[in-house]
Please model this.
Amino acid sequence: MTTKSILNSLTSKGIISDQQADTIASFEDEQAFSIHWELRSVLYLGILLFSSGAGMLIYENIDTIGHQVIIAVIALITAGCFYYTYKNSLPYSHEQVSNPNKLIDYVLLLGCSTFLGLEGYLQYQYNLFGTRYGLAVIIPTIVFFLCAYRFDHRGALSMAITGLASWLGLTIAPLSVLADNDFSDGKLIIPAIALGAVLTAVGWISEEQNIKKHFAFTYMLMGGNLACIAAQIGLFSHSPKILYFLIGIGLCCFFIYRARHAQSLLFLLMGTVYSYSIITYTIFDNLGADAAFGLSIFYFFFSSIGVIYFLLNFKKFLGIKSGVKK
Amino acid sequence: MKKAYNETWVENLHIQRQAAIWKSKNLLTGQQEEEVKAQFPERFYRPGIFVKIGLFLFGVLACSFFVGFLSLFTFDTRSEAGFSTLSLICCACFVFTLEYLIKTKNLFHSGVDNALLYAAIIAAMVPVFLLFEHAPVWAYCLIALAIVVPATLRYADLLSPVAIFGLIFTIMAELMMKFPLGKALLPFAVMLLSGVIYALARKNKDIYYHECRQILEVLALVTFYLGGNYLVVRELNALISDLNVSVAPQIAFAPLFYFFTFIVPVSYVFFGLKRADRILFIIGLIAFAFSVYTYKHYFGILPVSQGLVLVGSLMIAAAIALIKYLHTPKRGISDEQDRKNSLENLQAVIAAQQLGATPASRGLEFGGGTFGGGGAGEAY
Model:
């Protein structure tokens, strides 16, 4: 199937005129092969290689260069990034700000990263914050939150949320939730659930109140995953189980309900998978080993068919009008 | 092979996508795009990627517990013949469910059908492994091909071209490794086979297999390059000759492989640009990077840090120079993010269409027709 055959079928159905078909065909013919994205990728990759090479060179020659010079250079880069971003940014608005200058997104991200690096370097070399680690974490968190709202940047928002969670004694990033945190200590579970719930609520409020509506997704994704995983770990290893069960199921219902409005069906998947594992665990935990073994083959077979049926017909169940994409 | 999914819908899906692209380039009006959607309908169930993932996961879960479920009713699953029978019954059930769901639920690579297809292929392969225990590897591969190729032709699944490609190459390598001469000629055989597969894939113009074709193209281009790459040939040569040395020895025809290592990426990039073939172009760029690494591996003198700085600055300089050079399109290559037709052009065409002679006369015919028909049918 070529451009020509598509144009032919469009003209034969009378959707476009022959003249317009000719225009489209000639437009497609004389269209040059654009290597825009390839060139940009080469450029960014070159910058990455160059800066890592430069970093290694500096590291190898740290004795001759000296720490002050390096700190000064990092500080200069950070200041330059923030200054450039501020200069080129559009004024604040509650809505999504789409800046035609795409470069400032990267510059802001670079500035945020070097700010973190600068702080880490100062702490490592000169022990700037001493043992007040909380202070060291909350400063970049506040800076990132301000940047995220002022310059309308979701990357900075994710970094800020991560910082906030670290400040609460957690490191939250979608993949390292399980790896880095020692949930066996029950003290962390309730704060984790609380933070997750608060973040989800903030996301919901910002959507309802129309303040940076597009941030809701980031808030809910990070907060929701944190709260659900924490609730599950609570359910698996701590009592009172009924409390964690109710919290987990409540969150899952909220996500499935959210899928009606949300821009993404990711929440539908999260709600389904989390609630499936919570319910399955609860059933088998209460049955005892022998009965559970006998039941398992039937249970998993029929329940997974049930979930498939639900996912195939979720639009009908949730009353979503067709035409919701993604 | 009869196709499992509704071919017209696949074509219509393609037309709709093309129309959406033209709409974004101001070549069609929004109204015309709507009309395209109405005239070329497709009713596939294509949920978002996340729902697909969920469907796939639970599909795999359901398939595996279905096997357990069935094994409760069969008396003899310990013996090989018994388990093979069970596996074949499962395969039949999976295929039946797959066909049934595609027909009734209008699935189109929606997760469940992928899971069912993979489960059916695995279930079909299990008896082969159980019943023929000591067959050579290439025999297993041939039987697997006999199952996967028809499945690909029917379902156009995206993973099965990868499987076919791997199976063909395993068969070839297995057969050639048996002879000393075969070992020496293996790189050339790999290149030849890749070339043949690429040519065959390019011949296929059916939109139904569009994605399969692209996957085969990518794989064939990559293996063609790797087959001629000096580093790969030298290291693999040492590996298959069981030489336990820290530095792989020099290979026969070394100058030829130096030549291939250099010329293949360059020609990929050149022909990619000339024929406006993005797959060829991008693989050429990546292959070129690997060639640079090959050179550095044997002849490099710079330490890593200086090498990185040098390569990085060369890349930056080249990219910036090209961006500046292509500020206006040259030789059919441009640096435009997204070329758009100006809206005035479109409006002019539409206006000409509406005001021109042809549409007016057609409008008259239309009016006459409906009027006459309506009168005959209802009022009289």
In short: Chain B touches chain A through 76 residues (CB under 8 Å). The CA atoms of residues 112 and 128 of chain B lie 25 Å apart. Residues 80-105 of chain B form the longest helix (26 residues).
